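Dock NDP; give full complex structure.
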Amino acid sequence: MAKRVLILGAGGVGNVVVRKCAMAPEVFGSIVLASRTRAKCDAIAADIGGGRVQTAGVDADRPEEMVALIRDVRPSLVVNVALPYQDLAVMDACLATGVDYLDTANYEPPDVPRFEYRWQWAYRERFEAAGIMALLGCGFDPGVTGVFTAHAAKHHFDEVRYLDIVDCNAGSHGRAFATNFNPEINIREITARGRYWQDGSWVETEPLEIHRPVTYPGIGPRESYLLYHEELESLAVHFPTLRRARFWMTFGEEYLTHLRVLQNVGMTSIQPVRIQGVDIQPLQFLKAVLPDPASLAAGYTGQTSIGCQIRGVKGGRERTCYVYNNCDHAACYREVKAQAVSYTTGVPAMIGAMLMLQGVWHRPGVWNVEQLDPDPFMAALPRQGLPWHEEIDQPLAFDDVPA
Ligand code: NDP
């Protein structure tokens, strides 16, 4: 039976989620799109047309506003694709109203860039007791990378031991400097110290200290930088046989030079500075002057390629598996007026929402995607526009396995 969904956030990702949900009326019978700036919701709803999407304005940082909106809309599920700062307020509102919850990024306190699950995992018992579900990190990374790992562990390995998540954007948007998703979150992530999981503990690096070329399918070699990325935390917990888990992302020279200059002049700082009696956070100001990620979509060319390279054992023998998706920016624009970074986040959020609403993935409590059966999700990915490929027992980009 078709259900009602409340989608929160009308940015690059929200635009994709709402359009993909609107294409599946048998699951999403009724759709409400709410965000801080209602005009953005109205513009998307008008473009979709046919009265398919209703809109609302809400400040999700204000729990009472969020609760009132949920009571008014009465959805079966809230899909939170606003910013990570809102996660806990929205989870509180879901608890108060008995409604399921899904997001694509873990909670982050505004004053410390942390990227940790502990605040949201602390809701587990309360969600369980209320009989409702929270699905955390259901974008691409985190999200599909967890599903890919669960799929490989289920079908190809007795034990997964080494995981390298490789994320390449080989697209070109023609701007000197822009971020592909929310600039504030993106820059916080990249300028943070690097970190990876090894032999039961975290190894820290300087920001972007470790890098090497990785060859991406259909793209070729690209310099890839070791970053901390939030899914490493949950994957290390949920796959305890992992001896090492790392995350790599590509950046061009031009991007890194701009970033270095912005950092050197203090523009990426989250410490407020007082200007003419007003406290301004430099990074928030920078966000305001950088291109809106959604505006990069028209004219964006090239592909993204994101996947998991896994080494482990099967039947007593060493095995490798590389499972990945390539996504074309221009094709995304033709389909939903988005670039591939928004698309590869929004489509998995829609699939997670669909599986929850259909009861296929419904389980009270707080869950990361890799804890659920990967099969229905893997089956839905190509149907919803994200075909995946896998190579078994082929050489991987990384052979630096410790003895
Ligand atoms: P954008 O900045 O483009 O959009 C964010 C939206 O949230 C805007 O519409 C904004 O409203 C709205 N918003 C912000 N604060 C509030 C608030 N207090 N109340 C209500 N609405 C609010 O971001 P993206 O679409 O690029 O990213 C959305 C989310 O997806 C982020 O959490 C990001 O970290 C995550 N993400 C996850 C990825 C993954 O693979 N897992 C990859 C990429 C992104 P306004 O227009 O008024 O500012």
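Observed: The pocket of NDP is lined by residues 9-14, 35-37, 40, 58-61, 81-84, 86, 104-105, 139-143, 181-182, 185, 293-294, 341, 345 (CB under 6 Å).
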